[in-house]
Structures are given as structure tokens and as C-alpha cells.
Amino acid sequence: MAGEHVAGDYVDVLIVGAGLSGVGAACHLRRKCPGKSLAILEARGAVGGTWDLFRYPGIRSDSDMFTLGYSFRPWTRAKAIADGASIREYIGEAATEHGVAEKIRFRHKVVAAEWSSDRAMWTVTVERGAETVTMTCGFLYLCTGYYRYDQGHTPEFPGADRFAGPIVHPQHWPEDLDWTGKRVVVIGSGATAVTLVPAMTGNAEHVTMLQRSPSYVLTLGSRDPIADWARDRLPAKVAYPLVRWKNVLLATLLFQLSRRKPDLVRGLLRRDAVRRLPAGYDVDTHFRPAYDPWDQRLCFVPDGDLFRAVRTGQASVVTDTIKTFTETGIALDSGDHLPADVIVTATGLELLMVGGITLTVDGDEIDPADTVAYKGMMFSGVPNLVMTMGYTNASWTLKADLVAHYVCRLLDHMAEHGLDQCTPQAPDPTLPREPFLDLTSGYIQRASHRLPKQGPTTPWRLHQNYPRDIALLRHGPLDDGVLFSRAGSAQAGSAR
């Protein structure tokens, strides 16, 4: 019967989401906690998450695959910046190799989860097609990503209903869209826009990137010469960690340098843009943001393809604001008019915490915005729940791998000590609270009021620092006086 618990439909760990994080989490559990039963619930009909949903032209990783790939499964292909189809295939291969594929239940959308301290158990409400079913689990592991899958962010553009051609958001790219010989305007300046523009130039008459303000753009090689060298001369078990750590350290250096010497990094990025663009190009208008490097994510372009498209005249960048859409294009506040046959609104994501799942603890509904994040992955006052949130300044999977490793340690610790509950106890309310993510990107600022907070010090601080998180999550103490309180309450961690 709909909504009725099915006897035996209990797992020790219930993972929500079969994307890069969810499949990786399940692989870690199968390798390190083989005695734990698990299931993965996926709202969509395929493995891959982001890499299955996004099908726009040129979709690719925005990090190198030696760090975006799993720690336990070396990335062996030649390209360091991989296309979406290759990443989707890589995730599927990992799921099959580790016996995870058969644990996935597709078209299962989790809408609510209720925790009972008396039972030390989550009851999870799931929409499965037209029916509603429930599952129970001892530990809930959310790998839902951080944005809405059913819709992206599209501002209200005046006159949009007047435009005669198609208006497309990259999150829902039509398979039959044909832009051959057409004039395309891509609205936006983030990672999606800088990917789309060079990818569409091959067939389009011309592609224009229309941006309200510029982003920092950094060229990366689509191949890593050190990785090529190591792959040819060293065993895979040596080459992969070597290249992975090389890239981790370079990314960490760039981020720290950006925060400590922003003028230096700004100058380096500007000089690179000047070198790659036509002589006399107005770099300061179109490629010099008002904010400091890494106040928002840097946009990486493989082999400088965006700059090349501009240099050859196949694409152009316009920095202006939109007055109104017209029948034939976009009228700008400057008085100019951009002719267009196709408009792409690469205007960002809609942030969505915990996949939109309603969380309830002992009858009280939990608003993540009222909690403080513990080690960047748990919520104060919420038992036996972990959420994977990857890095914003490095590859997502680096953090996802560490979170999975931590969960395995935590489950083993609880089993060893006869504990069935762990709950981060909220820090002193007099301590200052800060936003969970400190980037100034529009999609984060629009949703900052819905995010948990962070505190001033560990374990309430989100460091965005991989080497530091290794010490904290791989080697730091589990029983730190926060996760397993000495108060003896059921919420703090009771023995079976």
C-alpha cells in the first residue's frame, strides 16, 4: 500500500543521488565497510547526476580529471579536461566494477526524512512514479549536489515573449536544436557560457557572449604533459597519486595566492588574456572583473579555446545590460542591438540544499539555515546524517572522497563502541556565525539565507583546503566531544 513500510526494506546506509558523489560514496562503503547494507535512490533514470543531466554543446569538466576522478580509480585517458560523456561513462564503470550498479533504484525521489531517536532510525518518504513508499535506514547519506535539477536560474527578461527564435537554458538543452548558420547570443559569463561559446562557433554564423560583468578566465591545457610522462614511465599506482597531488598543490597555491596577493594574480590573468586576444582588444572591459580572483570561481578554458574563437572573429564578447528582447534579438541599455536567431540563457543555477528534502528530527522540522555545519558535512542537532558538499575552489571529488572516507571511519567507530547515534552538538550561540560559502557568485548570494552557517574555528569552519581536510577527516579524532556528547542523551549517542 502507498506510504506503508515494506517489511525488510531497511538498509544500514541509504545514499540519495547516483551522481559522481553518490556512486563514489557507495564504492567507498563497499570497499571499506562491506558488512553494511546500502541502497542508492536516484530521482532520475540514469547514473551520472550533473554529467547525465547537462547535454549542452561542449559540456566538460571544469577541473582536471586527475583530481575530479576518484582516489580509488585512476583516470587513465589522455585528456585531463574531459567531455561530459566520458565522465558519465567513467562513473558508470566505477559503479559496475564495485558492485554498486545493482544497488541503485532509479526514479525514486526522496521528498522527506524523519528521524526517531527512540528507534535510532530514519524513515524516508519516496515518490516512485505515481506511488509513495517508505524506507528506513540507520544512516542517511545525502549526495544530492547543491542545485535544483528541474530548473535553472533565468531572470525575467523584458520582451522575451516577443523574440521569434528559441530561448534555451543549458540545463535543459533540446536535442533537436539546430544553430547551423545562425546568429547565437549566449547570455552569461560563467563556466557554462565560456564553454558554450567556442563549442557553438563551428556551425553558427557568429556567437556573441553577452555579459553584464566579466569573469576571470584562465587557460589550462587539455592534456597534462607531466601526466603523459608519468603514465608512460611509472606504474599506475605511482603515477596517479603523483599527478593528483601535483594538481592539488598547484590549485591550492593559486587559490592562496589569489587571496593573499590578488593584485599579482589579477595581473597574471590579464597578461595571459592580452597575449591570447587580438592586438588592441579592450581586455579591461571584457576580461577584467571588479572583484578579486577567487571571490568567484575562476573559469577554466582548455587550450584557450574561448580566446581563440574571439581572435578568429567567430565569436565576440559584449559587456552591457539588457533593455529588452526584440523580435530579432536583444536591445541593450547602451542603445546597441544584438541580432540573434537563437538565445541561450547561461544565467546560472538555483541552489537547493539537501535536494529539497524535508528533514524532521523527533517531530521538529529542521531548517538547514538554522543549523551550523559540522566539518562542512553534518548539521548541528541532526543525527546520523551526512551531506556531501565538494570544494568550490578545487575539484568537487577531492572533498567527496574525504567525506566518504570519514563516513566509513565513523560507521566503524560506532559499531566498535556500540553506538547507534551521533549528533553534532551546536556550538556556543554567542560565537559569531558566518555564511557557509564565502563566494560572491550570484547563485550563492541568491540562496545564502537558505544555507547553514559556519563558525569561527574547527570543527565548525569550512576551510576549503584539501591538505588541511586530510588531517581533519582522515586522521582527526572522531570522538571530539562534539559529535558524541558526554551528556548521555539519546541524541548524543546511545548504546544499543
From TrEMBL:
Q: Which UniProt keywords apply?
A: FAD, Flavoprotein, Monooxygenase, NADP, Oxidoreductase
Report the cofactors.
FAD
SUPFAM superfamilies recorded: FAD/NAD(P)-binding domain (SSF51905)
Q: Name one Pfam family in it.
A: FMO-like
A single GO molecular function term of this UniProt record: flavin adenine dinucleotide binding
Record's signal peptide: none
InterPro entries annotated for this entry? FAD-binding_MO, FAD/NAD-bd_sf, Flavin_mOase-like
UniProt entry tagged with the keyword Flavoprotein:
yes
The record's PANTHER family line, in alphabetical order, gives:
MONOOXYGENASE, PUTATIVE (AFU_ORTHOLOGUE AFUA_8G02570)-RELATED
Would you identify the family this protein belongs to, as annotated? Belongs to the FAD-binding monooxygenase family.
**What name does the UniProt record give this protein?**
Predicted flavoprotein CzcO associated with the cation diffusion facilitator CzcD
